[in-house]
Records
---
Amino acid sequence: MKLTTVTNVSVDGVMQGLGLADEDRRGGFERGGWALPLVDEETMEHLGEVYGRADAFLFGRVTYEIFAASWGAMADPEDNPVGAALHARPKYVVSKTLTDPGWAGTTVLSGDPVAAVRELKGRTPGEVQVHGSGQLVRCLAAEGIVDEMILLTYPVIVGQGTRLFPADGPDGALALVDSRVTPGGVTFQVYRPAGRPRYATEVPDRPS
């Protein structure tokens, strides 16, 4: 199974609280809802295509609860491509404390997350998508489990909040395989891991 991560980020890399003002106030975050005003029709159409091709979804605990409270509570999810895909496909959530998920079709992966995801990838074909779930994405990327990364970058600088990648972490090269921009300025970039980065080793001559 191919594992794809799908992450909405600001220009300065923030991924926290993109949807609603009170969606995620961890760490005193007060600038929630920064992405929603920038979502245009083309953004939603392309997101519908991305969600629609998934065979399963994988979440960390926090993102799962946010999705369950919004998409999982929709009265008529079939009327929305994203909602329809989320309701119809199997959902997996990595958590050591969640025991009774309320969203139908959810399986809790309570053991070692890396081993659990490797086992999930190995037993079924298709594509499993990780939406949001920054801590999980960072863990899986460090372990080399991510096959493709989709970044939706919004034309805004949030200035605070949790970022996709920490200031100090493993490095990695990426190959850009697709890119597009919506009329509202949201860019979709699709990357695949490409090993280690190449660093310049020669020091140019400097005038004396």
---
Amino acid sequence: MVVKTAFRVIEIVELFAREKQPLALSEMARLLDMPVSSCLGLIRTLEEQGYMYETGRRQGYYPTGRLLAMAQVIAAHDPVLDRVKATLEELRDAARETVVFGKFRDATQVVYLDVLSAPQRIRYTAESGETRPAYANSLGRALLSTLAPDARRKLLESTALLPLTDATLTTTDAIEDELQRSAARGWYGNLGESIPDLIGLAWPLRIGGEAYAISVAGPRYRVEPRIEDIAAMLRSACLAIEPKTESPR
């Protein structure tokens, strides 16, 4: 269930992140496909709470620094990210590719909780909060491996396994076979299945009884020759984070 007012506030925040400039009320309403009166009510509320200000008479509105300040406080006290951040940074520096930390948003979607971009000009880019279909994503494959086989098969059979590229696996049997191979070789992969010429390697872990996964992703020409080395770094990172009493499967 989506609460419309909350959804609209999030849309406003994301609109400014995209546009990167002050916006007039009429322009906001147009871009959000929202009645001007409704948009005005939301802007006035955000303004009264200190999250929005008018840059000048008829010059448009823009978020204040309070939004960033609140976000930084929240991020600084995330109990899970606080626990994994240093290890993710070490993995990113060692692999020199983008590192992503995520978990299931629901049984069919993966949500990216943190993204550490590679120190390379050509790299895989994504943002925290983005979601991906689990069946064609390396993190998703790793997370699917943590489910009971019967539950996983039932889930895959009820999911629309659409081809995202020519390489996407689109049958339950093909994905199940790939999961078995992945467990044996020591990494779960996405080899051009969601974006051509992109490779993602992932491995699962548990924190507080919850399943998470870490991936390393980058252009195929750089990652493919180093798959085994990167996979070893990835597994070591997961072991460094995960308590010895917990197992990913």
---
Amino acid sequence: MERSARPTEVVPVTSPFANSNRPGVPPRLPTPPTGWPIGSYATYEEAQRAVDFLALEDFPVQDITVVGVDLMLVERVTGKLTWSRVLMTGAASGAWFGLFVGLLLTLFSPEPGVTVGPVLTGLITGVFFGLVFAAVGYGSARGKRDFQSASQLVAGRYDVLCHPKSAEKGRDLLAKLAMRPPNPGN
């Protein structure tokens, strides 16, 4: 048998889970950050200031990654929950949703213009169901969580990482930034 002299054609196989490794496009799946540390900051605002400075100095900022280290979930209590507050919030939430549904119904109404019937029906139904769902949810907790809160993910510090090819230049530029006094207006 004689082998063909033609080179074999390579067809790339793609997958929704494959990393395309295109510059400027973040990976689709969670991956650990790579690069060399060129700065470490106590707050995100300071890290952002550093990256802004690098951008102003025509540094290739696409080589930069800001990484939050020592992550914490902070829950700040914003107030006490009472039946009246729960029901008012449920009614307001239901009213917005009911108003939205009522306006959608008027779009598909055979009569031209906004009619009051579907909007009012949606509003009243929304308030009713908002009250019911809020009451059931709060009543099922049985006093185990009688407060409102807002959660936030924060880091203990923020490291600025850079590709090795640009790391030395980035460190030098950030050293210049560290010598400057902080600008409160910036």
